[in-house]
Write a structure and sequence with these properties.
This protein has about 400 residues and is an alpha/beta fold. It folds into 2 domains: about 1-290, Rossmann fold (3-Layer(aba) Sandwich), CATH 3.40.50.300; about 295-390, Dinitrogenase iron-molybdenum cofactor biosynthesis domain (Nucleotidyltransferase, domain 5). About 40% of the residues lie in helices and about 25% in strands. It has helices spanning about 1-10, 15-30, 45-60, 75-80, 125-135, 155-165, 180-195, 225-235, 245-250, 255-260, 265-290, 340-345, 360-365, 380-390, and strands spanning about 30-40, 65-70, 90, 95, 100, 105-110, 140, 145-150, 170-175, 200-210, 215-220, 235-245, 295-300, 305, 315-320, 325-330, 350, 370. Strands 1, 2, 5, 6, 8, 9, 10, 11 and 12 form a 9-stranded mixed β-sheet that branches. Strands 13, 14, 15, 16, 17 and 18 form a 6-stranded mixed β-sheet that branches. A 3-stranded mixed β-sheet has the order 3-4-7.
Length: about 400
């Protein structure tokens, strides 16, 4: 892994690396039930603290958890876990496993792979994209219930790479009650809508201050702004985490708050967050399995349904929640991308089409896409979707 990172930084053959990784990527991701990217619109809101304590809290509930730090320029996860120079585990079969924190939690960050702890990572977009893909494809994470991904603040290369590489990942947005943070977290919300990433919910961090002398809460940085924003945006509010002066000392000592001070109000808040995240992820998972959430693709020629898949590279794509169309878009499939891979990248769950060649049908069914054939061609795509939602098309 170190040699590969070095090769990337010196300008390795990116196309061949990506081609080699694609099979392993799909293999690895198929073993992970839930993937959650922790995001924030700006720095300094405690996003990494939320990601680390969430991962540990889930592991304490007997879930198998992976924690991936994709902040390549300022990785904090190793310090917060007390394992800045942790070592990758080489398996008997020659593959490399992530760094073990506890029996139920393993993690990976770029920091243990650097020659010195304070070495600067000076990479442009393509190198960062390749490194993040390697973190998922070339590291044996094993079977996980949750993969928590700590992304850098903003909507740059790293979160975009995660969104494209792990199309079924959920976003967990972190904000503080301050107005400037609430403004910036809207950008993360719009980013998720743009890249078609489902939002798990929003966490209000630094929500109140725990006095170290009397133990009472003081609204030092305001309170309730995150909850109001979640209601306004129509997303789940997953909890509020108060500020405790011991958070800084615990983080610097490599002892996350939820484990170091389990009786504290902050640890209790994190435990509630863990419960809410478990409930929210299972709900989103069931929505897809039971058809309450669908992302439907229909090949189109203009506004009408195309006769066959090889007649067009344009698709009308609809997000449908509980029978209601929430988002509609028209997307062009790149000519150099196979249909099954493109549909998977777009997180398509259903494909409506007049007819599908047998070979294509088998490919799409293998990746879990539900086919609705027999759609009349030349009718409007919107009408075809409404017929399907009404039960006319089976």
């Amino acid at each position: 892994m170190n040699e590969t990172i070095a090769g990337l930084s010196q300008g390795g053959d990116r196309s061949s690396i990506l081609e080699h990784q694609e099979r392993r990527l799909q293999e690895q991701l198929s073993k992970i039930r839930h993937k959650i990217m922790v995001m924030s619109g700006k720095g300094g809101v405690g996003k990494s603290s939320v990601a680390v304590n969430l991962a540990i809290g889930l592991s304490l509930q007997d879930f198998m958890v992976g924690l991936l730090d994709v902040d390549l320029h300022g990785p904090n996860v190793p310090k917060m876990l007390g394992l800045r120079r942790g070592r990758l585990q080489r398996r008997p079969d020659g593959r490399i496993g992530a760094i073990v924190y506890s029996p139920n939690l393993k993690f990976l960050s770029i920091e243990p792979l650097l020659p010195q702890e304070d070495a600067a990572v000076i990479w442009r977009g393509p190198l960062k994209i390749s490194a993040i893909r390697q973190f998922i494809a070339d590291i044996d994470w094993g079977k996980l219930d949750y993969l928590i991904i700590d992304a850098p603040p903003g909507t740059g290369d790293e979160p975009l790479t995660v969104a494209k590489t792990i199309p079924d990942a959920y976003a967990l947005l972190v904000t503080t009650p301050q107005e400037v943070s609430l403004i910036d977290v809207r950008k993360s919300y719009n980013f998720c809508r743009k890249v078609k990433m489902r939002i798990l919910g929003l966490v209000e961090n630094m929500s109140g201050f725990i006095c170290p002398h009397c133990g009472k809460e003081v609204d030092l940085f305001k309170r309730g702004g995150g909850e109001r924003l979640a209601e306004e945006l129509g997303i789940k509010f997953l909890g509020r985490i108060p500020v405790d002066p011991r958070v800084v000392a615990a983080g610097d000592a490599g002892k996350p708050m939820i484990a170091a001070y389990p009786e504290s109000k902050t640890a209790e808040a994190y435990e509630e967050l863990v419960r809410n995240v478990v409930a929210a992820t299972e709900e989103l998972y069931r929505d897809i399995e039971e058809g309450r959430y669908m992302r439907v693709a229909i090949p189109v020629e203009g506004p009408n349904v195309a006769e066959t898949l090889d007649k067009t590279d344009l698709f009308a794509v609809y997000d449908v929640e509980k029978g209601q169309v929430k988002v509609k878009d028209v997307v062009k499939k790149p000519a150099d991308t196979s249909l099954d891979l493109w549909l998977k990248e777009q997180v398509i769950t259903h494909l409506l089409i007049p007819q599908v060649p047998e070979e294509t049908r088998n490919q799409l069914q293998r990746i879990g896409i539900r086919l609705i054939e027999g759609v009349p061609s030349k009718i409007k795509a919107d009408m075809a979707l409404q017929d399907y939602l009404a039960g006319i098309l089976k």
